[in-house]
Design goal:
The chain is α+β, with helices and mostly antiparallel strands and about 300 residues long. The protein is built from five helices and 18 strands. The strands form two sheets. Strands 1, 3, 4, 6, 9, 10, 12, 13, 16 and 17 form a ten-stranded mixed beta sheet that branches. The protein has an eight-stranded antiparallel beta sheet with strand order 5-2-7-8-11-14-15-18.
């Protein structure tokens, strides 16, 4: 009986230690120009090898840049930017990262970790991007661009901060410890529960794409959130809604056509003026030059 009690307590203790969240830090891997971190009431210069802790703010000056690495995920902070590492938490089953872009931008390349669920968010005062294994950039003006994978993008007013899962998990595991005392049957339940957490839906499903649903990318997806895939972009409009990525692509296509049309008109006007001034040696009218311009836009299937 004592052997069963001791073994049950040991398993519960290991679960508490392994499942509780702890605040971590990101390591500085690249510095160019003036890069500082806010600590207390002072700004301290950063260099390669330094660590930036949770809730600290990184600031870059003119023609400056910084890159940070957190458990394989890279955060690139370009010039004239200020980014706060609001949340950096890690457990045996989940990574939680939340960035706040105060000014400028931040580009993130999130690395998928086998067996771990990843909750990675980057937000501005206008919009929020929730991601799953992707490469993207968020600008302080509310624009988001995706280079690889997919993000869920929505109004910052709908943002819900990440929960402190460490304390919740700890409480649940302490209850399991109390219930597990004294019987071998409870011990088996604890082990099965631990295995279920590792093998179940809590695992990260890998990088997302434009066809992945918003709810699959993040559990905090509000109504009206848009999934933005690789090669697409979105912007929060005046009504607090993320623009449709396909509409953004059409707008870029129309702007390109307008630019080509404007250049063609100017060329025609220039040719006409030359002919009017006797620029043509043969006295014949100038013949407009024609050609073909192809604009190819690929939408994810």
């Amino acid at each position: 009986m004592k052997r069963f009690i001791s073994k049950g307590l040991l398993i519960a203790l290991l679960l508490v230690i392994g499942g509780s969240a702890f605040a971590a830090s990101a390591k500085v891997t690249y510095v160019k120009g003036k890069v500082e971190v806010s600590r207390g009431d002072a700004w301290v210069a950063l260099k390669v090898g330094d660590e930036v802790k949770e809730s600290e703010t990184v600031s870059t000056g003119f023609q400056s840049e910084a890159r940070l690495n957190y458990n394989g995920s890279v955060m690139a902070v370009p010039a004239l930017s200020r980014v706060t590492l609001e949340t950096l938490r890690s457990t045996s089953s989940k990574e939680t990262v939340s960035l706040k872009v105060d000014t400028g931008a931040v580009r993130s390349k999130v690395t998928h970790t086998s067996g771990k669920k990843i909750e990675y968010e980057a937000r501005t005062s206008v919009g929020v991007a929730s991601v799953r294994g992707t490469d993207f950039v968020v600008y302080s003006d509310g624009t988001a661009e995706v280079y690889e994978g997919a993000i869920v993008y929505y109004d910052a007013n709908d943002y819900v901060p990440p929960k402190d899962t460490g304390s919740e998990e700890g409480e649940g595991e302490e209850e399991g410890e109390e219930e597990g005392e004294g019987t071998e049957e409870t011990e088996g339940t604890d082990e099965a529960g631990a295995e279920g957490e590792t093998e179940g839906s809590g695992q990260d499903q890998g990088p997302a794409n434009a066809t992945t649903s918003a709810d699959e990318i993040t559990s905090n997806s509000p109504k009206g959130a848009k999934v933005i895939g690789a090669g697409q972009s979105s912007q929060i409009n005046e009504d607090g809604e993320a623009s449709d990525p396909f509409d953004e692509a059409k707008n870029r296509n129309q702007k390109a056509k307008n630019s080509v049309g404007s250049a063609s008109d100017k060329d025609g006007q220039s040719s006409g003026a030359t002919a009017a001034n006797g620029g043509s040696s043969s006295g014949s009218q100038s013949t407009p030059q024609t050609g073909t311009i192809e604009i190819k836009i690929t939408f994810p299937q």
